[in-house]
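Hi C.,

You asked whether I'd gotten around to modeling the 149-residue construct. I have! Everything is below, sequence then structure, no commentary in between.
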Amino acid sequence: MTTSIHLAGPDDAAKAQALMQRSHAERALPHDDAHRENVIAPLLDGSPLGAIWLIGPARAPLGYVLISFGWSVDTGGMIGWVEDIYIRPSVRKRGIGTEVLHAVAVTLGRADLRALHVRIPDGDDALARFCARAGFGKDQTIRVMTDTM
């Protein structure tokens, strides 16, 4: 792998939050700094419910990927969801995201992750193409419905 990644920890909070802010602004998501801090703080502190990897140089990362974890009866073990992936626009379309998702999947596979999922919103063909290039296949058995609390 030519792109470096590292599991983010408490010392990476400011960098992770700044990258997440850029991601949210680019996608016009309504989240504020307090929301972002509430999302990432437990993960940076080692929560078993998810992890964040920073992409690129440790002192000036160019992106991140956030994975949440769960358990699946169907797969017989731990599964992951790609909750968010962001690469700075100036370095996109160079294969970095594909490379990073593959590296994270391999790493998590060694920890006995059974499946890694991505939710693709209807009509987001660019995300679907990106995920296909990264090795994800369409799963005809999953249709996600949500009841928010």
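If it helps when you're writing up: The longest helix spans residues 96-110.

Thanks,
B.
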